[in-house]
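As promised in the previous annual report, we have extended the structural survey to additional targets. Below is the entry for Olfactory receptor.
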Amino acid sequence: MGMVKSTNESNITGFILLGFSDYPQLQKVLFVVILILYLLTILGNTTIILISRLEPKLHTPMYFFLSHLSFLDLCFTSSVIPQLLVNLWDPMKTITYGGCVVQLYVSLALGSTECVLLALMSYDRYVAICRPLHYTLLMHPHFCMTLTSLAWLSGVTTTLVQSTLTLQLPFCGHHQVDHFICEVPVLIKLACVDTTFNEAELFVASILFLIVPVSFILVSYGYIAQAVLKIKSATGRKKVFGTCSSHVTVVIIFYGTIMFMYLQSAKSTYKDQGKFVSLFYTVVTPMLNPLIYTLRNKEVKGALRKVLGKIQVVNFT
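The corresponding structure token record, generated without further manual editing, is:
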């Protein structure tokens, strides 16, 4: 058990994910709560993907991006939560080196892709509200596919760079990861050499994938707010605010929690707060996304009722 590695040796067998070991009374409770949230995440995001595909009225850029967001959330949670549940139940709390590497590469790629995708969704809302006459021309299917492909490409690129640089660090026998997931910031803390370069690279990546997208989103919604205030109809303003508020809610929760984790120094002492904050963007946010987008969206609720109605008819026939 554990990891065996010297400065010049890479015979690694595994890590110990300490997770919430300091709170043994909470671990079984967390296991039940996280399991329920994970099942709700699978159900909610799968539903979004299915109705976006099955309902012709939802074949629009907004739901194209939303279905990709749901797919990202499904993959991201599945790369993190199963191992987290095992460690909450198993007192050994081990993860193989290969498992840690896979989790590091996959979760970082998916998380980075989502950061870019949320910015693209804000651009879609900007065009829909501020330039409605040009919406179908600007946001045509090929362009939407290109934007989504760029989001995925950026996520894959950053994980190939960040994860590879992090795994090149010597850990000198340090195998206890004071977290519940293999992430770049926590693995940098294990290194037994100067990590100034890695921290600088992490900071630059955080600027590119956190600050830049958030700034883009704020600018987009600044223009949207100006356009909404010009709408004379109170009903029209309410409809637009209802459509955009769901996206803003997701953005605040997702970016806020990730910024807390990635923009602090690798030597930060806020380890316990970091663990609980990480639960938000790994467990809570992926579960909330379908609820936020559906409960405040009449189109999605109507499409869901229509699809369920068709299923009932098929069953009775």
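The mean pLDDT is 84. The radius of gyration is 21 Å. These points will be discussed at the next consortium meeting with the crystallography subgroup.
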